[in-house]
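Run DNA-binding transcriptional LysR family regulator through structure prediction, thanks.
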Amino acid sequence: MPVPSHLDPRLLRAFVTVAEELHFTRAAARLYVAQQALSRDVRRLERELGAELFVRSTRQVTLTADGERLLPYARRVLQAQDELLAAFGQARPLLVDLNSPGLGTGRRVLHRARGLAPELELMARYESGLTWAAAEILAGRLDVSFGRYAGLAPALRAGLEQQPVRYEPMALVLPEDHPLAPLPEVPLDALAGETVYAGAGNPRTPEWTDLARRLFAGRGIEVAPPAPLAVGEEEFERLMAKTRNPVLVVVGFPAMPATVVRPLVDPVPLSPVSLVWRKGLVHPGLRALRRAAGLVAAEEGWLRRPVRGWIPDSDAEVMAS
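Sure, done. The structure for DNA-binding transcriptional LysR family regulator is below.
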């Protein structure tokens, strides 16, 4: 078996997991990756080693002689890597951006991860938008965030990885005396002629404004022009009373004084949420977060796209990856 000059430990972890499960679907679920991505990693390892590691059939997966030979070495390498990372910096807190206080998706995942790995310190941060958080991740000042990955600039995405977490239904915050407030749900067509605030001009959240523009295009709905960011509940309430513009949010947005939150329907617009981190980041807290995201998404049906759900094609491709 030829020996390459370098082997990515991720490829070895993929191999070991498949070797232990002898089933690509179960191994992919255990690693919280798509089965196609896992198969690509195993094929890449086979190419780099110049050896076939598994015999695959429609009924079963078995190790070849070379696979049996590699397995104990791969396990030792991964154990050594885990020990090295634990000794050098992996005990440090993992900084997890939840965007804004009160939003549910990231908070739910973080809470589950803390339960899965209570010995780790997973510290919440609130950076308000994925574009801003992504720059902080790449600069090493933040580790993980949640948000619309497809809305990031290609230069940012090049240094990041992501795991789809949720199709989150979108909603409106309305003044409690707004004509649409009595409706339990607001049909999208009912917003024709309205001007809706969607964070235009906020340098932290251009991915959200872009999603709103795509949603409103051709429907007679305007995105409110850039305005200074309202910081704090009191300022938010004051500006809503002054402008009376509906605000585009997600269904889990916390209630504010003198306002109501109403889901959007016909179609149901979806905000695609991914877990996002820096390429090459290895930390037990990240593994706990990825596992937690997979568990909560499966339990809550977060990745089941509604039949009448709306999402841009570019986002659908990301969420299917």
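The first strand starts at residue 54 and ends at 56.
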